[in-house]
Every structure is written in structure tokens, then in C-alpha cells.
Specification:
CATH topology of the largest domain: Rossmann fold
CATH architecture of the largest domain: 3-Layer(aba) Sandwich
Number of strands: 25
Bound molecules: adenosine-5'-triphosphate, magnesium ion
Helix content: 25-40%
CATH superfamily of the largest domain: HUPs
Distance between the termini: 13 Å
Strand order of the largest sheet: 10-23-24-25-21-22-11
Number of domains: 3
Structural class: alpha/beta
Strand content: 15-25%
Shape: elongated
Length: about 575
């Protein structure tokens, strides 16, 4: 992991040098090129931040370009969602670009390659093409159609375009080298027949260009200077360069690869996420347990915390798996600053304060943020009947349990000191209500006689609160690496990743709850309204993140620090 420091990461170093050497007239143009075949995930955020930030840093521009050359899989809903995600992250891109807008130009480039004798129409079947391609250890064989004349190629390609052939009958291939150790150079496919209607070009085309051909040419047509992509495209770079070298194109962008983002306890791949959605292991693409930007946003993630996370993990050439705990701590840091505090009880236990006047309701002042005066105060109500958390009571508590127990006194946040005098149980012996007394002299929480009361607990006025459901989320997978031992992802799903609490109580304080407006439930964590599942008068709330990292504690328990520690050896200087 490399933190972004003053010198920046290796890509920044390359771009800086290029600018200093006046390469591309000192211009920097980048692009973020998603294929609109699914929703973006946090891995894409890394690429978005990198591309837009490099453009910002060097006064350049970054295009949003939809790589929409495969009509079978692409949809308008994905385009809309991608645009909204990039905007949500706070980046400006003007009008988006579409690879499909270049279909005419790409066709002309293909014709240019044919005329130069660098592309041919091949009529092998798909199986034969695969067979002729060879393997990683064996060279391929030339297709028997490789030496078709320019005229014949031209004629067949025109007829492919005119819809005279069925899918799979003919393909257009680059003529490079069937014995290249790089499989991508073994006469790669440039165009195939696809009788599919395209969301943007309709039925104008029945041949569509392949990704490798489309991508480099789109980059060039847009004047991209630095084409930043993830490591799996390293082996495609020779084809990227070959295509641009053979053709008369506006410019030759430099492709630079970086490592993809991987995070433990989740998967960052559209294809794998799609399986989880389609097989109903989660409830849609915006399920708050998913690492999709839609899911994270619905859960209450802020765009600032995601950008901070991308900054901290940096950009490198080496694959690694980042701890989910780091992402969550970026989120907590951000929410701790911003989220107003409120009180809510997730697992309620009734408390009756027997010496409190029957029909009195008092208004108490509560701070919206313990450190930030500027966030102001609010008034909350108090009465004879309140709710407290079941976990804040123990019938037979150990000494250090500074909450409620028979005969024990606690502070009710912003209110009074109360002492538990009795408990009421149901026939099974479960405690269903606490009887308490309060000390009227302790309004605000302090005893005039100076007696010490250690514990402070939260509460909600039972006569003035909102009933709500709360969804608690945990990691989607049980194992750090969901595909460990080459196991199927699904076997590793965490069966407890979603818990629904049906009977929660929330203070009635600030009117409407809002989606994406995260509040802290004091002592419990950060929460926000789930707009999708809530109905009028029946809110459903998402837990965005807990206050502390429960998994870190668990990891510590499972791997306790070794006792007989070796004396510390001096660290060797790290190799750069
Ligand atoms: P997936 O494997 O999730 O389907 P993809 O690479 O097919 O992703 P694209 O729409 O092609 O998705 O991705 C757009 C851009 O985002 C590409 O430049 C790709 O390199 C980058 N990208 C995708 N996933 C990650 C990731 N996990 N980390 C960094 N960049 C990523
Ligand atoms: Mg891809």
C-alpha cells in the first residue's frame, strides 16, 4: 500500500514528467471508460478518482466514455446509474461520450486496415478458430482464409455490414502473428456479426467492433493522452499499440496499468455480483450489503469517505487485498464529524419511573454533537414511561457493569439519575419491565451532593417516539477471501449478513428522517433512512456502520498477541 504523498504515485510521476517534457503539448487528457453492462462498484471508484484527479492536478480533462460496443449486454438503466454515481462522487465530466458514436469512424478504420493488407475476413467456425489459435505453450496455425485478396476482403466485409451473413459465418481479424507468445496478437477478432439492436444506434449496425479495437481508437479520437487501466490489460497493450501504429489516427495515447482494488470479505467484479443478484442471494443491485456504489450510497456511505479511502490505499502495480476495516474506519471518521446525534433504542425494555408525576411531560435540551457547538441543540421529551436498551440491564450484573441492575443507579442521558427498584417478569421468567425511581434534584444528569454515578445510558420517551424497523448489516461473506480454496462464492456467504429488528424506538425530534442523511444513534452506531423500503408512517432504517470495529476485536481474540515476544530486531531498510 502506498499512501498518496507529496510526490504522488507512479502514474502521477509519469504524467508529471510528460508535462515537464512538453509531451502532447503539455496536455493531459484521461477518461473513465465503463461498459454499461452493470452497476459500478467501489473498485470502479478507484479508477474514477485516479482518472479525474490526474486530470484535475494537471489542468487537463477527464472524459466519461461509455464503452458500449456489445449491444447484447448493455442497457440504459446502467448508463443512468453510472452517470449518477460519477456525479455523486463529485466529479464533473460535461457531456458523456459513447464508443457507439464512433461506429462510422471505426468502420472506416477497419476498411483502412483491409486496404493495407492488415486485416482479413475469416470464415472458420468458432470452434475451428479456437483450435487454430493454439495454446499458451503451442503456437497457432494460420487460418486458410488469411491470404484472401484485399478485394475479396473488402467485398465480404461490406456484405457483413449489409447483413448478408448470419452470426458466426464470418469475422474480421487483424493479420498479426499466429505464433506470437502473446495470444492477443494471434490474429485477434476486430469485428463480428451481431444481429442485435443497439440502445443508441438502433438497427443501423449488424456488425460490432470488439473491445480491443474500439478502445484504443476511441481513446485516440478523443485526444486521450494517458489511458489508465487495470493490470489485466497489460497483455493487451501490444495490440493497443499495434492498432494505433498501423492506422492513421489523431494521436497515440499511452496505456498505463495499475492494480485493481480488492477488499476482503467481498467481491469486486460485476460478473460475480450479478450472480449474487440474479440468484437472489441479495435483494437487488442496490442491496446495502453489496460493494456497489448504489448499495453503499443507500446504506449511508458518504462519497467523501470513499474518496478518502481511495486516497489512502493509493495506486500501485502490485495486487493486494485491502482490509474492509480500513474502508469502515474512513467512513466512521467522516460520519463522526458530520452526523448529528439522536437517541434510539433497538431492543426496547420498558421502564416505569414510579415517583415521576403521571401526566407530566418535560422538555430537555440535548446537544446535536458533543464537540460541535455550531451543530446546535434540540429539545427532547421525558415522561413517566421510557424505553431503554435490553442490553443495558442485567438481573445479576458483575461489578463492572455500569448500567442498570436491581438497586443500581445510572444516568439517563440529558435527563435524570434513576435507580432500579424492581423488575416485572412474564410467566417464562423473562424481564419485561423495570420499575425505577428518579431523583428530581438531578435534572441534566448531575447529583447536587456530588455522588458518583459512572454509567450513562440512552433512552427514548415511550409516550413520544417513532416506531421503526432497523436493518443491521454485517459482512456479506464469512471468509476474508470469498473464493478461498477455489470454492464457490455462494458457499462462503455469511448467513447472518442481514438482521431485521422489527420493534425499535426512535426519539421524535427533528421531523422527517431522510435517505442518505446519516445520524448517530448514541452508543449504537450510524444509521440512515432506507427510502426504498420505508412507507409513510413506517420508516425502515439502515445501520450504516457500527461505532467500533467488532471484527478487529474478533481477529484479536482469534490471534492473541504472542506472549514471549522476541526482542525486537532492527528493521532492515525497505527496498524501494
Ligand atoms: P468488472 O470486472 O467488475 O466487470 P470491468 O473491468 O469489466 O469490471 P469496466 O466497466 O470495463 O468493468 O470498467 C471500467 C474501468 O474501471 C476500467 O478501466 C477498469 O479497469 C476499471 N476497474 C474495474 N474494476 C476495478 C477495480 N476493482 N479496481 C480498479 N479499477 C477497476
Ligand atoms: Mg471490463
Amino acid at each position: 500500500m502506498e499512501a498518496e504523498n507529496s510526490k504522488g504515485h507512479f502514474i502521477e510521476t509519469i504524467i508529471k514528467e510528460d508535462v515537464e517534457n512538453n509531451k502532447n503539448d503539455g496536455q493531459v487528457v484521461t477518461r473513465f471508460p465503463p461498459e454499461p453492462n452493470g452497476y459500478l462498484h467501489i473498485g470502479h471508484a478507484k479508477s474514477i478518482c485516479l482518472n479525474f484527479k490526474m486530470a484535475q492536478k494537471f489542468n487537463g480533462r477527464c472524459n466519461l466514455r461509455f464503452d458500449d460496443s456489445n449491444p447484447a449486454k448493455e442497457k440504459q438503466v446502467y448508463i443512468d446509474s453510472i452517470e449518477s454515481a460519477v456525479k455523486w462522487l463529485g466529479f464533473e465530466y460535461g457531456t458523456p461520450f459513447y464508443a457507439s458514436d464512433y461506429f462510422d469512424r471505426l468502420y472506416e478504420f477497419a476498411v483502412e486496415l483491409i486496404q493495407k493488407g492488415k486485416a482479413y475476413v475469416c470464415s472458420l467456425s468458432a470452434d475451428q478458430t479456437r483450435e487454430y489459435r493454439g495454446t499458451l505453450t503451442e503456437p497457432g496455425k494460420n487460418s486458410p482464409y488469411r491470404d484472401r485478396s484485399v478485394e475479396e476482403n473488402q467485398d465480404l466485409f461490406t456484405r457483413m455490414k449489409n447483413g448478408e451473413f448470419d452470426e458466426g459465418e464470418h469475422i474480421l481479424r487483424a493479420k498479426i502473428d499466429m505464433s506470437s507468445p502473446n495470444m492477443n496478437l494471434r490474429d485477434p477478432i476486430l469485428y463480428r456479426v451481431k444481429k442485435a439492436s443497439h440502445p443508441r444506434t438502433g438497427d443501423k449496425w449488424c456488425i460490432y467492433p470488439m473491445y480491443d479495437f474500439t478502445h484504443c481508437l476511441s481513446d485516440s479520437l478523443e485526444g486521450v493522452t494517458h489511458s489508465l487501466c487495470s493490470l489485466e490489460f497489460e497483455d493487451h497493450r501490444p495490440l493497443y499499440d499495434w492498432t494505433l501504429d498501423e492506422l492513421d489516427t489523431p494521436c497515440h495515447p499511452q496505456q498505463i496499468e495499475f492494480a485493481r482494488m480488492n477488499i476482503n470479505y467481498t467481491v469486486l467484479s460485476k460478473r460475480k455480483l450479478q450472480r449474487l443478484v440474479e440468484k437472489d442471494h441479495v435483494q437487488g443491485w442496490d442491496d446495502p450489503r453489496l460493494p456497489t456504489l448504489e448499495g453503499m450510497r443507500r446504506r449511508g456511505y458518504t462519497s467523501e469517505s470513499i474518496k478518502k479511502f481511495c486516497d489512502i490505499i493509493g495506486v500501485s502495480k502490485k495486487d493486494s487485498r485491502i482490509d474492509m476495516g480500513l474502508l469502515e474506519s474512513c467512513l466512521r471518521d467522516d460520519l463522526n464529524e458530520k452526523a448529528p446525534r439522536v437517541m434510539a433504542v433497538l431492543k426496547p425494555l420498558k421502564v416505569t419511573i414510579i415517583n415521576y408525576p403521571d401526566d407530566l411531560t418535560e422538555e430537555l435540551m440535548a446537544k446535536n454533537h458533543p464537540q460541535k457547538e455550531e451543530m446546535g441543540t434540540r429539545s427532547i421529551t421525558f415522561s413517566k414511561e421510557i424505553w431503554v436498551e435490553q442490553d443495558d440491564f442485567m438481573e445479576d450484573p458483575p461489578k463492572k457493569f455500569f448500567r442498570l441492575g436491581p438497586g443500581r443507579e445510572v444516568r439517563l442521558r440529558y435527563a435524570y439519575l434513576v435507580t432500579c427498584t424492581d423488575v416485572i417478569k412474564d410467566e417464562d421468567g423473562t424481564v419485561i419491565e423495570l420499575i425505577c425511581t428518579y431523583d428530581p434534584e438531578t435534572k441534566g444528569g448531575n447529583a447536587p451532593d456530588g455522588r458518583k454515578v459512572k454509567g450513562t445510558i440512552h433512552w427514548v420517551n415511550a409516550n413520544d417516539c417513532i416506531d421503526t424497523k432497523v436493518k443491521l448489516y454485517d459482512r456479506l461473506f464469512k471468509d476474508e477471501n470469498p473464493e478461498k480454496d477455489k470454492r464457490d462464492l455462494v458457499e462462503n456467504l455469511n448467513p447472518d449478513s442481514l438482521q431485521l429488528l422489527e420493534n425499535c424506538k426512535l426519539e421524535k425530534c427533528r421531523g422527517e428522517l431522510e435517505a442518505e442523511h446519516v445520524v448517530q444513534f448514541e452508543r449504537l452506531g450510524y444509521f440512515c433512512l432506507d427510502a426504498k423500503e420505508s412507507t409513510k408512517g413506517a420508516p425502515v432504517i439502515n445501520r450504516t456502520v457500527t461505532l467500533r470495529d467488532a471484527w478487529a476485536k474478533l481477529a484479536k481474540k482469534n490471534n492473541p498477541p504472542r506472549k514471549n515476544k522476541q526482542p525486537k530486531r532492527k528493521k532492515r531498510p525497505q527496498q524501494k
